[in-house]
Amino acid sequence: xxxxxxxxxxxxxxxxxxxxxxxxxxxxxxxxxxxxxxxxxxxxxxxxxxxxxxxxxxxxxxxxxxxxxxxxxxxxxxxxxxxxxxxxxxxxxxxxxxxxxxxxxxxxxxxxxxxxxxxxxxxxxxxxxxxxxxxxxxxxxxxxxxxxxxxxxxxxxxxxxxxxxxxxxxxxxxxxxxxxxxxxxxxxxxxxxxxxxxxxxxxxxxxxxxxxxxxxxxxxxxxxxxxxxxxxxxxxxxxxxxxxxxxxxxxxxxxxxxxxxxxxxxxxx
Length: 269
Prior knowledge:
This protein has 269 residues and is mainly beta. It folds into two domains: 43-143, Immunoglobulin-like; 158-268, Immunoglobulin-like (Sandwich), CATH 2.60.40. The protein is 7% helix and 44% strand. The protein has one helix at residues 2-21, and strands at residues 43-48, 53-54, 60-70, 76-82, 91-92, 97-105, 110-111, 116-127, 132-134, 138-143, 158-163, 175-182, 187-188, 192-198, 201-206, 213-217, 225-226, 231-236, 247-255, 258-259, 261-262, 265-268. Strand 8 and strand 9 (132-134) form a beta hairpin. The protein is elongated and about 125 Å long.
């Protein structure tokens, strides 16, 4: 009898040991590691629509790209486009699907032929568990921007003209007009004429003293030229061009004998 009792005690002890080894939990149920689900990263897709258009003011292209994204088991907390491939988002995105216009500077491209440049962009998304997903690198093949060489008789530059902050008065030193040049050419002042007309009166503007209107440069690196993007101001220089608010001024800019396109009139207040 004592032998049987010892045998039963031994068997019971083995069952207890084996139950721990084979994954029985304290409540008698088997552990199931498969019940612990791992995080699913976001699902993303992205593509280029195949378009490209040169920017009017900067050296580069505007392109249109498409994206879509979702997260099966959570939320997307950050997403967007990386255009310079530095690992950070340059164009943040919040919508799950949409089209975006990206500006691609010329400095980010390489020329693989005379007529085409290449670069790549990528789309990525981060979920609330810290998992990133990325689209494949999207290669852009873009027609190169061919700028016409500066001509001795013609420029493709344009200009804008607006009322300056100074008030028009009966004085003869009012600052009347603020202007900005845009384009790829630098216009030498010795080849530029700026002419104002108010009613039947015509006034010539110059960077040098002696004319009815004085050209003042507020920025730029070359005092002898009107550079692209540079603002200038036109002010009275001893002549009462505008003596009251609401003064209508017609403008004409001539470069090497050719009229430059831009605002041909403005109202001075």
